[in-house]
Amino acid sequence: MTTIKDVAKAAAVSTATVSAVINDSAYVSPPLRARVQAAIDDLKYEPSQMARNLKKGRSQLIGLVVADLANPFFARMVWAAEAAVAAWGYSLVVFNSDEKPENERKALARIRALSCDGALVVPVGLPAHYAQRDAEGHGIPTVLFGRIVEDRRSDTVTIDNVAAASQVTNYLLDLGHTRIGSITGPLHLTTGRGRLDGMLQAMQQRGLAPEPGHVRAGEFREDVAYSVAREMLDRPDRPTALYVANGVMALGVMRALADLSIPCPQEISIASTDTIPGIGGLRPRLTRTEHPIIEMTNEALRLLVDRIQRGDNTPPRNVVFQPALILGESCAPLRRGSV
Amino acid sequence: MTTIKDVAKAAAVSTATVSAVINDSAYVSPPLRARVQAAIDDLKYEPSQMARNLKKGRSQLIGLVVADLANPFFARMVWAAEAAVAAWGYSLVVFNSDEKPENERKALARIRALSCDGALVVPVGLPAHYAQRDAEGHGIPTVLFGRIVEDRRSDTVTIDNVAAASQVTNYLLDLGHTRIGSITGPLHLTTGRGRLDGMLQAMQQRGLAPEPGHVRAGEFREDVAYSVAREMLDRPDRPTALYVANGVMALGVMRALADLSIPCPQEISIASTDTIPGIGGLRPRLTRTEHPIIEMTNEALRLLVDRIQRGDNTPPRNVVFQPALILGESCAPLRRGSV
DNA sequence: CACACCGAGCTAATCGTTTCGCTGTATTTT
DNA sequence: AAAATACAGCGAAACGATTAGCTCGGTGTG
Question: Do the bridges between strand B180-184 and strand A215-217 make them parallel or antiparallel, or are there none, so unpaired?
Answer without folding.
Answer: unpaired
